Amino acid sequence: MFRLKPDGTLEKAIRTMGKLDEKGDGIPGSAVNVDLDPDEAQRLLKRELDFWLKGKGLKKKPAAEVAKKDAAEAKTEASAKLETAPKIEALARPEGK
To answer: What is the DSSP letter of 52?
Structure first.
């Protein structure tokens, strides 16, 4: 947890650590709050801000998956345009002419 002052300076940084059981699940009531030193707090805060505001650290989607998604969206858009297009009725010719 990070607590910032209104001017954006870091006021306090806390990391919560707890014990895990043999399955790897957290043990209720075992969590302990640990104060972080200012250098580590600044580094972690910068990493969090870069992730949430700039998207740094996000995993890239495979190119094939992106191309497949784009093709599916294009197909959906084309079919939507056909469904909403005005229908042209065939002109009736007078019989005998």
So the answer is: I
In a domain, 28, yes or no: yes
Contact 13, 37 (CB under 8 A): no
The residue range of the domain holding 8 is 2-82
Return the pLDDT at 87.
56
φ/ψ of 53, rounded to 5, equals -95, -30
**Model confidence, pTM:** 0.50
| Distance spanning both ends of the chain, measured CA to CA | 85
Q: Would residue 92 count as lying in a domain?
A: no
Q: If 0-12 CB within 10 Å is exposed, 13-18 middle and 19+ buried, where does residue 88 land?
A: exposed
Long-range pairs, 35-44, Cβ under 8 A, ≥24: 38/10, 38/13, 40/13, 41/2, 41/10, 41/13, 42/10, 44/2, 44/13
Split into its structural domains, the chain has a count of 1
